[in-house]
Amino acid sequence: METENIRKDSMKAWLLAARPKTLTAAAVPVMIGLALAFVDAGDYLPTDAQGRPFNGWAALLCLLFAFVMQIDANFINDFFDYVRGTDDAATRLGPRRACAQGWVSLSAMKKAIALTTCLACVIGLPLVWFGGLEMIAVGLLCILFCFLYTTHLSYIGMGDILVLVFFGVIPVCIPYYIELHTITWEVIVGSLACGLVIDALLLVNNFRDRDNDRLAGKITLVVEIGPENTLVLYLMTGVVACLMGLFYWWHGHLLAFLLPLVYLVLHVFTYLRIKRIYQGKALNACLGDTARNIFIYGLTVAIGILLL
Questions:
Q1: DSSP letters for 279-295
Q2: Rounded to whole angstroms, how far apart are CA atoms 301 and 295?
């Protein structure tokens, strides 16, 4: 698809700019948080209540907010990396970007960023009704760090920490809190495990770009600890996440521990593939494998939680 001629500001150009493959990383943590909330909902019923307190509309809004924020983040990353000169079409190893390739004009991308940011606010605002006024603070933090990540924090080695927070803790814990107005240790541990799994995507991305990032003065964890240590870290994100799944077993969700072992096998195979390829554009295939693994992790955990 990317090898074809792309007409400027066309639908195909915007589809590529939105990076639909990244939406799995947005969906997985919300899916896990909602699965935990759905199963635990009966435990928080008032004695005179009928039915489950789990609200499907709130769940849908959580998913939509995550999707729109991910697209917003992709647009922001595309725009600011090009303006800053990080996305050089001649030296870039990763998938080509819309602004750098001229598929989307800078003025159009500015408008798209404004639109998706406003749309995220519109989608997220009703969550105040379900989760309370604190949801406004959560939404503002998501938007603020969406900009800060690309413009500043990713250049000073904060990327992996932000992934743990904004692809782990917040998108797992907040949907659970919106549904049940409480947080449990199972949810907290599950959110950290999810963050580790998704951080593998950032690790392989930065592993591929390590030489270009070093030359550009961009400090990433990979640049700091070196490629060999990064390979070990990549492997351990999956191993530790699955070990943290013992917490699910402890709370009566045995399948939520056992089913993700399928993910772990695939994760190990991807690690071996990264180690064999080691550098260059061929690592983009490993990026796709990692995204697939993340989705399988989320799916197996969610199914394991729901199948009591």
A1: SSGGGHHHHHHHHHHHH
A2: 10
What pTM value is reported for the model? Answer: 0.90
Question: Could you give the CA distance from residue 35 to residue 257 in angstroms, rounded to a whole number?
Answer: 14
For 287, list phi and psi in degrees, rounded to 5.
Answer: -65, -45
10-residue stretch averages of pLDDT, the chain, 308 residues long: 67 89 91 95 54 82 96 93 70 76 91 96 95 94 92 88 96 96 95 97 93 85 95 98 95 94 98 95 93 96 92
Beta bridge partners of 156: 219
pLDDT at 49: 44
**8-state DSSP, 169:** I
Distances (CA, A) of 8 to 3, 70, 101, 134: 14, 22, 9, 41
Give every CB contact of residue 69 below 8 A, 6+ residues apart in sequence. Answer: 26, 120, 142, 143, 146
Residue 96 CA to residue 87 CA, distance in Å, equals: 9
Alpha-carbon distance values, 227 to 162, 215, 279, 283 (Å): 21, 15, 10, 13
Alpha helices in 85-151 (DSSP H): 98-101, 106-124, 127-131, 134-151
Give the model's pLDDT for residue 172: 97
Separation of alpha carbons 35 and 307, rounded Å: 10
